[in-house]
Amino acid sequence: MNRRENLKLLFTGSLASGFLWTTACQPGSRDTLHKSVLPTGYGRTAAELAHDEKLNTAVFFSEEERKKIEVLVDFIVPADKRSGSANDAGVPDFIEFMMKDMPAYQVPMRGGLKWLDYQADERFGSDFLGCSERQQLQLIDEIAYPDRAPTDMEGGVKFFNMLRNLTVTGFFTSEMGLADLGYEGNRPNAWDGVPQEVLAKYGLQYEEKYRDVYLDPLSRNKIAQWDEEGNLV
Asked: Which of 81, 161, 175, 204 is the most exposed place for a label (fewest CB within 10 A)?
């Protein structure tokens, strides 16, 4: 089983119990589902739309922090033959929004990114972005597996857990991620009438002159109209 399949199982198995939201309900943060998982503008009040617009026009990450996020999220959800990477799905934008909509994330996120620079400088004499991909992954591997992480890396483990939760949530609630899961959602169908055996059981049948009108799937959204004598028009 590859990394993508593991992430799918993790996400789909945890969504109902609040995969991201159980970690997000910290003092000062919201205790409701994040609005960005809903269609833009759908069911929103004027005040909520103004709130979203305010957050969308503000900027939290510096240019350097944004570049780190872009590197990190693609380590977590890389591209494969099935779909694109976390960056392709717009996950950095999702995380940027989350930092502003749930301010309790801001200090842990910014502190974690600085922690990466400190660790990279101690080990490789460069900040995180200045390291090679091999060096970056070497550092990430030490905090990506909590059960195996050294005790002195606890801060990094907590940071990476948070980032991984945000990344996977952002990816699998995006259009690309939903397609990757194979989620189709509710789809309209065409009803072809009561089965003939049921009609026969009760001695009923459709009137032939109305059959094509009653069961025409192309006109199912039209409101039926009758004439003064009760005949279907």
From this structure: 81
